[in-house]
Task: inverse folding
């Protein structure tokens, strides 16, 4: 009987991530980059090493997705930190308006341990594309404009490679939003597979 149990347990399917997570079987090596954090200090690929990193794109004037997602990330990161060392990055895709002082004040509202980084578009756009996300500025010549950006969260592993993308849920009539429960569950699965 014990042999049968062993055989059955060995044949049980491996737990897989939800439909909201894209987990790369071979994590992607990222190109070298240098951004500037909310204290005007340079941050590079080296800042990814040794911990799990959650990267979210946004801008401080964002009316809905950014504050909602950052609020969720404060709770998600608390749960993830119980499993592994982690860091949250808020990547501002509006460098002309999001000064270091503005990013510092904005991120402190959620969690002042988060990194709030940006850079000029010629550096920022290739970096964002490299981590599998996108953004576009909808400028009409004025200072009051919207920025279209991914609502997904990129997961960079402790070796500095792109490991996964957590996608938001899209529900009719609602702003796209991260499902915190599924994201934490999926992170746990990814963590187990990485060991």
Result:
């Amino acid at each position: 009987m014990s042999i049968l149990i062993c055989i059955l347990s060995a044949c049980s399917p491996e737990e897989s991530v939800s439909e909201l997570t894209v987990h790369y079987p071979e994590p992607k090596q990222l190109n070298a980059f240098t951004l500037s954090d909310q204290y005007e200090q340079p941050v590079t690929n080296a800042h990814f090493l040794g911990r799990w990193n959650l990267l979210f794109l946004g801008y401080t004037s964002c009316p809905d997705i950014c504050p909602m997602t950052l609020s969720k990330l404060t709770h998600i990161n608390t749960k993830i930190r119980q499993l592994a060392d982690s860091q949250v990055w808020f990547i501002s895709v509006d460098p002309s308006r999001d000064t270091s002082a503005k990013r510092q004040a904005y991120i402190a509202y959620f969690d002042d341990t988060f990194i709030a980084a940006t850079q000029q578009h010629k550096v920022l756009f290739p970096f964002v594309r490299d981590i599998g996300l996108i953004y576009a500025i909808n400028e009409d010549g004025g200072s009051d404009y919207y920025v279209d950006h991914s609502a997904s969260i990129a997961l960079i592993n402790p070796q500095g490679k792109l490991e996964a993308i957590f996608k938001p849920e899209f529900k009719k009539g609602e702003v796209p939003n991260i499902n915190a429960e599924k994201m934490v569950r999926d992170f746990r699965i990814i963590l187990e597979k990485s060991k």
Remarks:
- The chain is about 30% helix and 25% strand.
- The CA atoms of residues 48 and 160 lie 5 Å apart.
